[in-house]
Amino acid sequence: MWSQLGECVIGSGAAKHLDLQFGDKIPVDSGTAFVLKDAPLRLRVAGILAATETPDDEAIFVNLETAWVIEGLGHGHMKSAEHGSPEAAIYTDITAETVDSFHFHGNRAHFPITEVIVVPTSQKSETLLMGQYLSPDDTAQIARPREVMDALLGKVFMVRSYMVAIVAAVSLVTLLTLSLVIVLSIRLRRSELVTMSKIGCSRHTIVSILGSQLLIILAVSFLFTGALALITDLYGSELVRFLVL
């Protein structure tokens, strides 16, 4: 693990993709609020995690204060230099010699923390902690990951069941409509079929002609739906994003 400001621990996948070894430096863009033109901060690789086959393999981990420095909430420069002076050049490497010069401006109690993973040591401590965040008006909330995922997956499977039911209903209605169209088509063409029979066409020939026409219609329909399905598969997500946004 990291032992000082400016160190990071990276996942095995990130180390492989970025070709990093222990002790290497990673440049990161720091949106500093104090200097507009600043060289990227460089983090030192203090460790490489073993592969876990999870998203952690592609992650880069730093401590909270390092994250604040990356966001531009803190920086380091020569201690005797005043802010804005030429001597107050921002350090881009956090080393044992420069680490003491790094400082933060503003109230650290207001610095951003988006989320915290809490692992209670007992059922009692968990209950007491949960009791402090029961109000929906609190800016911070506690969520049990397993319960949240179970609820989310429950909604996903519920929507899936509805979609299957809708597809089944639409398929049944389509089949009935197709059957009705075929029956009505044969009834409307009764005189034509009688004429074909009188000029010598056998029943097999008449059925073959009607069947060929039906197959042509189905083939064109399948080609059309296949093209729509391909377009949806290729551009469906972009289309949904465009319609939603």
Distinctive features:
245 residues; alpha+beta; 2 domains; 4-stranded mixed β-sheet; two-stranded antiparallel sheet; 6 helices; 10% strand; elongated
Structure notes:
By secondary structure, this protein is of the alpha+beta class. The protein has two domains: 7-114, no CATH class; 145-244, no CATH class. The chain contains six helices and six strands. The chain has a four-stranded mixed β-sheet. The radius of gyration is 34 Å and the shape is elongated. The protein starts with 6 loop residues before the first strand and ends with a helix.
- Counting structural domains, the number is 2
Could you give the distance between the termini?
42 Å
Which spans have pLDDT < 50 for at least 5 consecutive residues?
A: 32-36
CA gyration radius, whole angstroms:
34 Å
Q: In percent, how much strand structure appears in the residues?
A: 5-15%
- State the secondary-structure class: alpha+beta
- Helix content range of the residues, please? 40-55%
Give helix and strand order, one letter per element, not per position.
EHEEEHEEHHHH
Globally, the shape reads elongated
Strand order of the largest sheet: 2-3-1-4
The description of the largest β-sheet is: 4 strands, mixed
What's the helix count?
6
- Average pLDDT metric: 84
List how many beta strands DSSP finds: 6
